[in-house]
Please model this.
Amino acid sequence: MKRILLLLLCTLALKSLGQSLPQQQVFGHFPVAGVESHDALSWLNQHASLPEPARWNEAFSRESPGGLHHHFQATLFGKPLEGAEAVVFITKDQHVRGAQWAQLSALPSPTVHNCDAALWQDNMWKWVRWEDHSGYGPRYWERWALDAEDGTVLQQRDMLLHFSDSVGRALVFRPDPLVKAGVVYGGAFIDDNDQNVGVLDPLRDTVSLGLTYANGLFTLSNSAVVIQEFDPPASSIPIQSSPDFFFSRSAAGFEMANAMYHIERIRTRLDSLGYGGLMTYAIPVDVNAFNGQDNSAFDRSSNPPRLFFGEGGVDDAEDSDVLAHEYGHALSHAAAPFTVNGTERSCLEEALCDYFAMSHSYRWDHWRYQYIFNWDGHNPFWSGRQGWSTKDYSQLTFSSIYSHTDVFADPLGVTLAAIGPEVMDKIVLESMFNFTSFMTMPQAANWMLLADTVLHGAQNASLLHLNFAARNILSPQIGTHEPVHTPPLDFFVMRPEDLWPFTNMAGSLFDIQGRKVADWGLHSDRRNDVLPSGRYIGLWENGKSFSVLVQNP
Model:
């Protein structure tokens, strides 16, 4: 397969947002004395020195199957420069393989009295005081930045991440009733305010569920998740002598068991992928929160963090896409805590969690896996989101955190179908340890290419790079050095408008009736005609076959 060599130095500036700090990335193979944080700091000070008298201070470190990820915070006069972060990724053979840091060309004036940090706003630093505003009924948490000199409110941030021992048994949706029935929302297959039990109850599956057993009673808690009530409206949490938590979908206990099951499955799967150390706590979950509004959120303010699921429209905790998406926020926060700063970075975060939703659905059934929030959305309540896109990243402006999630979810979802969730999930999880504030989508894509290099010897990097290039997130030319004799891919997923991917060997393409539809030579870059959606069989010039799936949104 094509191999992408990541021995390069590249600087990728964020798009022109007034609140963003430009970022620099370095990929290479730099030897260091060790793998500890002080080794990373020594390397960072040599390659990314700050203007005096600012300093890099250790923030946190994470270990993954790929290596050690050391994060640093820029400080001045003992106060943090908000969002000015760095990460140094060291593999276990004592080499820095990648790093990223905020570029600082100016510093704020000396500190003023009672300031907490310096905030980058309107292309200048301002000393601020933090003021948190939070409450319940429904849950909210905002962090205000007040000018430390005159008390003016400079910024208001919603700190919640929204999306608009014993074994027992439970009845759940896997992954949701529409996929199970193979239908779209409408007709008899509607929410109907939980009254549609005659149609939906038969679509439940009996599953094993981890429970806690004490004093002869079973409760809905295990090492991955614990069901609690911490936001209105309040519902009684079942505690019973039977280990069978069998509820009609009209009962509150159904959403509780459904949420437990899917989150437990994701948490258990982390162990099988080698990332079991990422989540070290059982996450508390309230499945009937936000006073019944159609909203869900990940709350980073509590210890441990928590998940809230609303009941407006379709109950959010009935849709495993919503559960996987919100738990994705918890995974991201565990890998690189409090690094979701900046509009594009926040949009990237949503796209990543949309990917986790796609991956979770894909493992049950490939049908409509790119229709994110398949049961909760794509209906009269709201339109849901898509895991495909025809957008050109270079033409986008990020005006909100939800504005262009699809442009980054698209290459992730297409590559997922081509190489499978086992491999793709590892690439995404590994890359997240290196995420920082104000990073761009191209920078995140580069971290994913490096993750594949470290974990899989770059076996999938050419396909992943191609899919990012299809959305112009990465340039087809940047950092690609292909050996002359590389084995070709044996499976492609593309859309009619995508770049012609068959470039590393000449070949022919046939439809399922055996008719030849295309011939090409080495390094063909694009065809003028369009392949209709469907499946094709290809034949490389060396006689080996491959398959192609052309799909339309």
Summary: Residues 143 and 323 are 25 Å apart (CA to CA). Residues 1-18, 477-488 have pLDDT under 50 and may be disordered. DSSP finds ten helices and 27 strands in the chain.
